[in-house]
Amino acid sequence: RKEVEQDPGPFNVPEGATVAFNCTYSNSASQSFFWYRQDCRKEPKLLMSVYSSGNEDGRFTAQLNRASQYISLLIRDSKLSDSATYLCVPKGGNTGNQFYFGTGTSLTVIP
Amino acid sequence: NAGVTQTPKFQVLKTGQSMTLQCAQDMNHEYMSWYRQDPGMGLRLIHYSVGAGITDQGEVPNGYNVSRSTTEDFPLRLLSAAPSQTSVYFCASSSRRALINEQFFGPGTRLTVL
């Protein structure tokens, strides 16, 4: 079983739409959770950390369900600049500081 | 702060050649890691280090060596390049002490092995 599984995508949505990405992780000992954004042929950059049951940052809302080992990312009022690949990243657990990267979900926002 | 820097940005090698990918960070981070990213796959951990003088293997270590003589530098060595090592390589660092200790990535090295 993969450490992290994400929606395969791609998601093509019009500007202004709301879109949600799902992610499940297999290591129940994971302690921290992150969503990273990766633009084409660039390095991943942190979008938001996910702590407690979830948090919100502007148009972005992340939710965490530890019992179901499930993380989600909601993007409201999509912008063209949101087009990217979104990586779900649980961290820690039995191996300590190791980060586990999903294959990512591709989002294209269409004018 | 420059953050995490990597050199070179692009490299073409012939099968059997050796080379070193450089990685440096100026944030005094304890943890440093090397990943490779291939199409359709997530980032896969090659080697990592929890501090100067300490390294360990990740998920795909074969064909790669690392060393960590200083906190700042974490070079990745390809001893005898193979076409299967064609990939994009990212170096990352993180702090053990930070409250939100996310990984910071370098810009990547795009390696082609012919």
- The overall pLDDT of chain A, averaged over residues, is 89
Structural class of chain A: mainly beta
- Helix amount of chain A, in percent? under 10%
The CA-CA distance between the termini of chain B, in Å, is: 36 Å
Mean pLDDT of chain B: 93
The structure class of chain B reads mainly beta
Could you spell the SSE succession of chain B in H and E letters? EEEEEEEEEEE
How do the SSEs of chain A run, as a string of H and E? EEEEEEEEEE
Q: Largest beta sheet of chain B, briefly?
A: 7 strands, mixed
Which labels suit this protein?
heterodimer; A: 111 residues; mainly beta; five-stranded antiparallel sheet; five-stranded mixed sheet; globular; B: 114 residues; seven-stranded mixed sheet; four-stranded antiparallel sheet; 11 strands; 0% helix
Provide structural commentary.
The complex is a heterodimer of chains A (111) and B (114). Chain A contains no helices and ten strands. Chain A is globular, with a radius of gyration of 13 Å. Chain A has 111 residues and is mainly β. The mean pLDDT of chain B is 93. Chain B is built from no helices and eleven strands. With 114 residues, chain B is mainly β. The A-B interface holds A 4, 32, 34, 41-46, 49, 51, 87, 96-99, 101-104 and B 31, 33, 35, 40-45, 48, 50, 58, 88, 90, 92, 94, 96, 100-108, 110.
Helices and strands, with pairings:
The complex is a heterodimer of chains A (111) and B (114).
Chain A: E1 4-6, E2 11-14, E3 19-25, E4 32-38, E5 45-50, E6 54-57, E7 60-65, E8 70-75, E9 84-91, E10 105-110
Parallel strand pairs in A: 2-10
Antiparallel strand pairs in A: 1-3, 3-8, 4-5, 4-9, 6-7, 7-8, 9-10
Chain B: E1 4-7, E2 10-13, E3 19-25, E4 31-37, E5 44-51, E6 54-57, E7 64-66, E8 76-78, E9 87-94, E10 104-105, E11 109-113
Parallel strand pairs in B: 2-11
Antiparallel strand pairs in B: 1-3, 3-8, 4-5, 4-9, 5-6, 7-8, 9-10, 9-11
